[in-house]
Amino acid sequence: MEKANGIVDLYLFSGIKGIFLANKKVDDQVKTYITYNKGRDWRLLQAPDTDLRGNPVNCLLPFCSLHLHLQISENPYSSGRISSKDTAPGLVVATGEDDAISWIFDEEYNIWFLDWGGALVAMKHTSMPIRHLWVSFDEGSSWDKYGFTSAPLFVDGSLVDPGVESQIMTVFGHFSLRSEWQLVKVDYKSIFSRRCNKDDFQTWHLLNQGEPCVMGERKIFKKRKPGAQCALGRDYSGTVVSEPCICADWDFECDYGYDRHGDNQCIPAFWYNPSSPSKDCSLGQSYLNSTGYRRIVSNNCTDGLREKYTAKSQQCPGKAPRGLHVVTVDGRLVAEQGHNATFIILMEEGDLQRTNIQLDFGDGIAVSYANFSPVEDGIRHVYKSAGIFQVTAYAENHLGSDTAVLFLHVVCPVEHVHLSVPFVAIRNKEVNVTAVVWPSQLGTLTYFWWFGNSTKPLITLNSSISFMFTSEGLNTITVQVAAGNALIQDSKDIAVHEYFQSQLLSFSPNLDYHNPDIPEWRQDIGKVIKRALVKVTSVPEDQILVAVFPGLPTSAELFILPHKNMTERRKGNEADLEQIAELLFNALNQNLVQFELKPGVQVIVYVTQLTLAPLVDSSTGHSSSAMLMLLSVVFVGLAVFLIYKFKRKIPWINIYAQVQHDKEQEMIGSVSQSENAPKITLSDFTEPEELLDKELDTRVIGK
What we know:
Elements: E1 7-12, E2 20-26, E3 29-35, E4 43-44, E5 67-68, E6 83-84, E7 92-93, E8 96-97, E9 109-114, E10 119-124, E11 132-136, E12 144-147, E13 154-160, E14 168-174, E15 181-187, E16 194-195, E17 201-205, E18 213-214, E19 217-224, E20 230-231, E21 239-244, E22 252-254, E23 258-260, E24 266-268, E25 286-289, E26 293-295, H1 306-309, E27 312-315, E28 322-328, E29 334-336, E30 340-349, E31 356-360, E32 366-369, E33 379-382, E34 387-397, E35 400-411, E36 416-420, E37 424-426, E38 430-438, E39 446-451, E40 458-460, E41 464-468, E42 473-483, E43 486-497, E44 499-507, H2 519-537, E45 544-548, E46 555-560, H3 570-589, E47 594-598, E48 601-607, E49 616-617, H4 624-645, H5 651-668, H6 688-697
Parallel strand pairs: 16-20, 29-35, 37-43
Antiparallel strand pairs: 1-2, 2-3, 3-4, 5-8, 6-7, 9-10, 10-11, 11-12, 13-14, 14-15, 17-19, 18-19, 19-21, 22-26, 23-24, 25-27, 28-30, 30-33, 31-32, 31-34, 34-35, 36-38, 38-41, 39-40, 39-42, 42-43, 44-46, 44-48, 44-49, 45-46, 47-48
Transmembrane segments: 626-644
Domain PKD: 360-404
Keywords: Glycoprotein, Membrane, Repeat, Signal, Transmembrane, Transmembrane helix
């Protein structure tokens, strides 16, 4: 029963199928109901006509009924339990009330089954000490009183040995609140005078309000006659007769999709269409059309109304495809490139056996099937490229067609991401950061950028981003790349300073033979070079950073950083940085910086540039060395222009041109040319570079 119907407890009878007890809350009152046909019909439980003393109960339905406690507790010592046994059909032991009139005892008792249900043992459930118990051999109609201890005992609990054939019970408790626990073993074997024979039994008919058929069967049981104190034994069988009954209305319940109404008629529910056959029903086949009724499960009735309520066979009508759907087997709209994507085609109505199916995967490949049989387990396809594909399903038969569309996002799993960042950046200047993803053709990717201690990422669809650091120190940049349900990340540290100097480094060729070109090796080599520089020059370790570049030949960059405790005198600090740079530059030029890669392999570190690199800072102005270089380039260009403009006024240019002309004539002329012809060599003239230097010396350049 559904909770919405107010059912608070439900109990199934043992020994007789189809009989349930249920407590239902009606008008704020809990009432006990009973069913004999597995819940099809319910009615209130009739109270006994008389009480234990023989007085009339005067309890008339539906105004008065018997109420039972149906709560089944896991604690075997708790009160209010209800129980029944397969070997004692028709007998249920429970605690209840009907207007303060009890069923057997005036007070609450615990009751146990003994000897296959042939005997009942009752013990008063009380907090006071007791010394008696009661035994019944006639299913509770009469009780005999027995003493189980010489002194009253506070009973804490009792146990019956496992097995309904048991005739032994153990009672435990204490004689006083301060005494130790006592165990009392009660053996009932002496009560049974002998084994039961056929003369000790009588027949008992199972009835449903006078009706002998319950769940489509008529059953007759044998029970021990009142007063016969004999043991039933292991071979006891209570059933004598079991034969099917003629099917009646109460043997049938409403079929799926039908609701029972007040006149016991089964009417189709508002959501159910009884005229619509199963989608597996193909033209030319037949199906069972429900009459709205079905025989109750486990009901054994036969003939009678069975033919009337049995589903009828009907021919399957032809239908056009309707309600076509295409979905993935896992319900997701994302698939991985190079892996199987399984599609399921569903159709609400139509002839599955006579409907053609076509599935276009959207990548230039399509498949067709003559009916639905081959596609019941799904259609598999492997996409060779990433992207968003329109998957189209098309169903058609002679009565019509239907179409369904699915958009599938095919992604290539991201295997690796490398974050490319500069090793050192200038404060308040933008730095470009790039995430290199492998494999490269992954379709649409989402990038999550985390800079420094920020708690909120920057989200882009581009693999590059520019960012400006406003504070000095070591900052961490992290990128997370999302492709479908995959998420990988890479992190790099970047040193941010107000200014720095850098110098490119190269190495002796023997280092290339041992370069595995992996990040871990480059990091280790950078640390080794840094230690070698510190050892030779005694420069503070925190002012040197060495970054080894990937690829061959092996190269690196040396960064010279300002001191952490930088004072406000920037010019003085810049001068200190220039001195450190010159110190390192000289040590590198003198081949003093070297390290042993492994025994027998000595690597020398060189500077790639021949001159000291200029200072890199955040100011908009240029350094003096850079300005001098710029002026030099300008004046050299101006001198070249003047020479070209006034070349006729410079004698050696004409001579040089004439010599060149004569040389050309000499090369292409005849061999018999006169030897007396004048010959002019270039060594007789001043070199053009010398003249240019002399002319430039006459000009004032930065002096």
